[in-house]
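Raw record, unedited: Sarcosine oxidase subunit alpha
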Amino acid sequence: MTASRLSPAHSPGHGIDRDDAFTFTLDGVEVHGFDGDTVASASIADDRIACGPSLYLARARGILTAGVEEPNALLHVSSQQSGQPAESMLPATTIHACDGLEARWLQGLGRLDPAGDGAVYDHRHVHTDVLVVGAGPSGLAAAREAAKTGARVLLMDEQPLPGGSLLSSRPGSEDGEIDEQDSVSWASATIDRLDGYEEFTYLPRTTAIGSYDSNYVIAVERRTAHLPAAERERLAASGVSRQRVWHVRAQRVVLATGSHERPIVFANNDRPGIMLAGAVRTYLNRYAVAAGSRVVVATTNDAAYALVEDLIDSELQVAAVVDSRREASPRAAAVLARTGVRGIFGSAVVDTASASDSVLFDTAAETDGRVSAVTVSALDADGRPAGEHEELYTDLLAVSGGYSPVLHLHTNRQGRVRWDAHLAAFVPEAPVQHQAVVGSANGATSLAASLREGAEAGHLAARELGYTAPLVVPAGPDATPDAAVRPLWVVPARGASLEAAAADEWRTHFVDLQRDQTVADVLRATGAGMRSPEHIKRYTSISTANDQGKTSGVNAMGVIAAVLNSQDPDAVGTTKNRPPYTPVPFVALAGRRRGELFDPARVTNIQPWHVAHGALFEDVGQWKRPWYYPQDGEDMDAAVLRECAAVRDSVGFQDTSTLGKIEIRGADSPEFLNRIYTNGFAKLKVGQGRYGLMCTPDGMLFDDGVTMRFAEDHYFMTTTTGGAAKVLDWLEEWHQTEWPELDVCFTSVTEQYNVVAVAGPQSRAVIARIAPEIDVANDAFPFMAYRETALVNGVPARIARVSFSGELAFEVYVDNFYGLSTWELIAEAGAEYGITPYGTETMHVLRAEKGLVIIGQDTDGTVTPHDAGMEWAVSKLKDFVGKRSFARDDNLRANRKHLVGVVPVDRRTRLDEGAQLIASGTPVTPEDGPVPMIGHVTSSYLSAALGHPFGLALIENGRGRAGEIVQSPKDGRLIDVQITPQILFDPEGSRRDG
């Protein structure tokens, strides 16, 4: 065996509990683990470093990292409890190993569980003074200094334990002590101390996936996956979510997100047994796992020497350290002198070998393709191999190509970065407003510097918010400053230059392991003329897998720079980091908005009355609206005819609370509405309302409604039920993007008011009874006026004379709380007149008889106000959205479709909505070819007032064809249909005033 679990005498193993052992299965083979293990650490401890083959080339691959940046070791994990799905594409380095877990390696391609996901997921929205992302040394220092001031502090970290990079250290090492105690204990004690502050919250296993304007950060917490099976089942049964999405709004943010180590690009750099040096150290110290027994360390920097010390302290063999730098740095020289390890400087690993090199990869083969030897060569001044090659035998190659600060959240906010030649990395150029980047994310290379930056950032964030306490910086060990990095962006196997070498020579120099992309692919992209890293990224697919290029992104920039003969990646630039930082299940983003909660039903306060009186409902813009109220033995037609007759002959009432309602305030409200509506609103008198139309820029109808003027700078707009949200968005869009100079603001108040429409010849009598303080006479209370009053039960109300039925009608507005009592008051007041509740179907019949339009039913995005017969609502004196389009040739065509009435000639057949209309006598047989259509039916109903069916239709030159007989298909035959004027009932409008 080459990999093994170490004893406590050889490794602290502070991330695992050796007293809690279990087994799980990986690819059907039993694996032993301890509580705290990941699938990756337990697998390596069982000497299984190889994982699934690569996606496109089926090359043998192994575990490369110890964290979220893992590109190779992807798992399919079977369902662990009832209702929970099987999941794929999960990095083995992040999956908590537990008893009974069943997993298998993937070849870079997963499959969604067809059974679906029945687990619970939820969202939580919080505000905090200071948000600290990352519980490493700098993050803990920041949280400590901010929380002790009394500020509300939220600390989140993707790891289950606090400490970050400290979890990879061991007592006595350069980063193994803080404030005179070992660093892991210091991290744990710091969290214990912070938990004593009332305003402090710690969220382990929580990954910040995106950062947005105004310090709005979204994070995903994994809440139950690490628990024993019985506990998971118990929590799931009690409704505890499996994962939670946090929406955090912070006044100040401290980003302590750390850094990711980079591989080195050389020939055959993808074999199992080639791991990042930092990952080898993590497995060694945190999980007590030796990933190999004879180790070669290849590095470009000082960081790898901490691993060398720890390997020797664990009594493991280090064959050599291959360092690209020409001479040993002070840190390197000191470590090599203490350990006696051989250092090979000014050199690099240029190729690797495996015992299975002569065998094509086969998952059933006995060998796992593990590295068995490395080829080392000296480098010339240009970084090319020179001189004799040396072969070193090894079972583990630990590589460190430098560290890339994790700046995803910083760049999400358009934070700028700069190239630091000393570190060979992109670092923040300047912080985003009200944010700070600290620790290794900011380029700090020592523990002391990270602690200092974190403490100062936390202290400053709290102080800027008015919280104060003395600043105390945790004491880290004195360390030799890190020497400059000598990056190796690409190491030729034979010493040839990139310009002279054939592309085939670069097909094993892997840049992106998950995408199987090599230097040859970059050469192909640049050979095609591409220079932008964004273009090359998409041409090659580098950094587009679910690891998002965490180990390949900067290397790709370095390779591009080398190919283009640039000095460093700074000349090439970077690609964009886009949320989410790590993959997130769609079901977690959905939260509880699934199933019946996916599109939750909205109901008014009057809903209990509707249900008690037998209403049937239809869904309109998420609202449950009463459709009709059937009585015993009635079908829909009978119920609607009865409701229509009641409104026409006496009085009916309807719950219209669902209509959109928007308050518009500001000194420029009149001007804004004048521009939005086709008709004028600037001169509308206070106390009056007006029906208005909105058009899109192409002159087509967008929405309509009545808007009342409450004060010189205060309007109250109503919209269609289904259009409430889109109209509010429409208003905001025009204000924010086109007319930001206007003093106007908008507030949705749809749910603040309940509204009851009272319509019919006796509606005036009903209103007089419920609002005796109002003079309801026609002259005193004219059409489109409104009055503020108190109802007889003392409820404040606003009553408007508005009609969508053509009848004398009123609308009663009350605060939401009084909706049901007001409805019952109206029902009692109208009982003498046989007041009848009516639903949306009756409303449609009544308005269609009067030729009134429903936007979205009688219009389809191609209808102008003139087409709909509402040119009377279009001003000729002012400009408005869409006005110029009325002059387009297409909008002036004589044969445009007009909204007109249609009546079946037989006065018995109800036409189908959506049915096509054709000119009378048009052949409809297949041999006659396509049938020319002249229009279609938009609305069709039975009418109690007319005594026969009727409809509305959009017909070419419809108003010019009044009286013409056309035809429509119905049940396999053609029905004769007469075109009529748009208004079929009470065309004079005499009933509106009672």
